[in-house]
Write a structure and sequence with these properties.
Layout: H1 11-28, E1 46-55, H2 57-67, E2 70-71, H3 77-83, E3 92-100, E4 106-109, E5 134-140, E6 146-151, E7 156-163, E8 165-172, H4 174-184, E9 187-188, H5 194-201, E10 211-219, E11 224-227, E12 249-254, E13 261-265, E14 270-275
Parallel strand pairs: 3-7, 10-14
Antiparallel strand pairs: 1-7, 2-7, 3-4, 3-5, 5-6, 8-14, 9-14, 10-11, 10-12, 12-13
């Protein structure tokens, strides 16, 4: 896509034509979808890396933080489905989960600031069992999609991941945010499904503005919303579908509450989400 889409108002017409061509391709060739969004092991917002080295949990964590982002966060069924593509004979594989033992066992993700959601837990029946020597989490038999807690000193293969979502804590207009992302990273972030939404909204608690810009944009000429990455808006998370559509509006996610999307004027200044390339290493 032409990187100067919004540099001049006339360039939006070119982008709309390009977007319509993409829509036509999807309609007439539905089986030929982009692997960037219908992926098996690599997804748009994060990708997993299986490391076939035997390390204890702490060693695995240090390796992942040096080479990638961190030990893997596996919080949704979509994540678990991706992991089924691992061909490993190992029964247990480390993920970025550890437990703080005591009166009540509490679970945490390795990545600092990422909250553990108990409703998304995939513990095997009877786990975690609360033994003081078993404080780290592993996936047991990838095809079973279940977690166990085991001794952190045990050695096992492990899963790392690269996070492709960057929260930029600078207040900029939507257009300024777009230029920044394309110059320093890849693009403003695209959210195509509920799993993407969960992945992105986890980062909003670190934002310093009430809303955070995304790559969602409204075209006045044709009267619909689109993603600047060429994606058609299928999944929607609007705070209110009845919000008025006006020219020069873009989509932002609320920092608090239910992290719904709001239609905001381009000149408002908020933090923003950039997406990075597969080769870019960073920690948010």
């Amino acid at each position: 896509m032409v990187t100067s889409v919004l540099q001049e108002k006339t360039s939006e017409k070119f982008f709309v034509v390009h977007l319509l061509c993409s829509i036509a391709h999807i309609v007439f060739f539905p089986g030929q979808m982009s692997l960037g969004h219908f992926c098996l092991f690599t997804c748009q917002l994060h990708e997993y890396h299986y490391v076939d080295q035997n390390m204890n949990w702490t060693g695995a964590q240090q390796h992942c933080r040096k080479e990638y982002t961190d030990l893997a966060t596996v919080s949704t069924m979509a994540d678990m489905e991706q992991l089924r593509n691992i061909h490993s004979e190992k029964t247990e594989i480390w993920i970025g989960l550890f437990n703080l033992t005591g009166i009540n066992v509490t679970s945490h993700w390795s990545l600092p600031g990422l909250q553990f959601n108990e409703s998304q837990a995939k513990w095997k029946s009877g786990e975690p069992d609360g033994f003081t020597s078993e404080t780290c989490g592993a996936v047991i038999d990838i095809t079973e999609k279940q977690w166990v807690d085991t001794s952190c000193m045990d050695k096992a293969h492990f899963l790392c991941y690269n996070d492709h979502v960057i929260l930029v804590k600078e207040n900029r207009t939507w257009e300024e945010a777009l230029y920044y992302c394309r110059h320093h990273h890849h693009d403003l972030v695209t959210i195509t499904n509920p799993e993407d939404q969960i992945w992105v909204q986890e980062k909003t608690k670190n934002a310093s503005s009430p809303f955070v810009w995304t790559g969602l944009r409204y075209t006045c000429s044709l009267g619909f919303w689109f993603w600047v990455s060429d994606e058609v808006v299928r999944y929607k998370n609007w705070a209110s579908p009845g919000q008025v559509n006006e020219c020069d509006m873009s989509g932002a996610m609320e920092t608090g509450g239910e992290h719904k999307w709001f239609k905001k004027h381009d000149e408002d200044k908020f933090n923003f989400f950039s997406s990075s390339t597969d080769s870019e290493k960073h920690i948010t």
